[in-house]
Amino acid sequence: MTSALLALALGTFSIVAADARTGQLGVAVQSKFPTVGAIVPAARAGAGAVATQALGKVQWKKEALDLMASGVPVEEVLKRLVAADPRRDERQLGLVDSKGKAASWTGKRCPDFAGSIVGDGFAVQGNILVGRATIEAMARAYQAAVTSGKPLAERLLLALEAGQAAGGDRRGQESAALVVVRPGGGYLGGDDTWVDLRVDDSPAPITELRRLYTDVHQYYFGDTTELVQVDGALAKELQASLTQLGFYKGPASGAYDTATRLALEDWMGWENLEGRIKPGDVMDGLVLRHLRRQLAERGKK
User: Fold this and answer.
1) Planar angle of CA 119, 124, 125, nearest 5 degrees
2) Burial class, 18, CB count within 10 angstroms (exposed 0-12 / middle 13-18 / buried 19+)
C-alpha cells in the first residue's frame, strides 16, 4: 500500500459477535480515523453483524447482511464478497451470523500489524496495530465476559477496552462506535436497533463510548432491573410530587387511578423516560429514584 493510501486507511480494531440465546448481534470498533461508526459497523437482527475496515467497503455491509439473512453460510458469504472484489488484498472483513458462526478476512496488503482471530460466536480483526497482542487481548476479554455472564454490549465494550490497553491502533485514537441489535429492541419496539452509539472525534473515544453506554443509554433505555409495587402510600407520594412539578392537579387520595397514571406518564415523557412506562400497578425503580432526586434537588433551590 502506498503512503497516500496508508494515510487514508482505517487503521482499526473491531469485534463482531452474536448471542444466539438472546438473539442479539453487535459490533464494537475503534480507529485513528474520524466517524468510524459511519463506515465500519452494521448489524441486523435475524441476519448477522459486519465490520468492514482497512480500505473499508461500505457496500459489503448490506450485501453481507442480505446474504446471511437468506441463509447463506457465513464462510460462503465471506468467500463470495472477497472473490468479487478486485481490491480485496487491501481490505478487512469480519462477519458473524445469527447462529454465532463467524468468519474474518485480512488482505495481504493491509498495513501491519494486520490479522484476526475467529472464536465461538465472535471474530476480532485489526490493522495498523502495534501487534497481535491487541486482537489476542480482545479475544480473551470477550471470552471471559461470556463466561461471567455479561450481556453482549458489555462484552463488546470490554473487548474494545482490552484491545486499547494492549496497544490498539499504532497511530492512536480518534473515534469509536458500539452497535447492538435485537428483535424489537429499538425505540418503543419500532425496529431492532437497541444500541447505536458513536464517538466521532475524541482523544479518548473508548472512554467516552463507555460513558455514553453506561450513564446515558442504560439509564434511559436499559432493561428494567427493579419493579416497585405502587401501593396507597406510594400513590399518595406520586400525587404530591407530581403536583409540585405541575403534572397532577387532583387530590392526594392515595389511589393509583387513571389521572395519576397519566400524570406520571406525562412527567416521564418530559424526562425522556417514556421507554420505562410499565402497565399495571408497578413502576420502574429507576423512575422512582429519578423522581425523588428531582424533588430533592428542587427543594435545595
Assistant:
1) 135
2) buried
Mean of pLDDT values over 210-219: 97
Q: What's the total number of domains in the chain?
A: 2
Phi, psi of 236 (to 5 degrees): -65, -40
Both 150 and 190 in a single domain? yes
The last residue of a domain, from among 205, 221, 237: 221
- Among the candidates 221, 240, 275, a domain finishes at 221
Pairwise pLDDT comparison (112 vs 72), residue with the higher score = 72
* 3-state helix, strand and coil shares in percent for the chain, rounded to the nearest 5: 40, 25, 35
Give the global pTM.
0.92
Q: Do both 135 and 244 map to the same domain?
A: no
Q: Which residues make beta-bridge pairs with 13?
A: 30, 126
Q: Would you say residue 8 has pLDDT above 80?
A: no
Quote the domain boundaries for residue 258. Answer: 227-300
Q: Which of 145, 155, 128, 167 is nearest to 3 (CA)?
A: 128
Quick one: angle between helices 152-165 and 133-147, nearest 10?
150
Q: Which of 6-15, 38-47, 139-148 has the lowest mean pLDDT?
A: 6-15
The three cell numbers locating residue 273 = 423516560
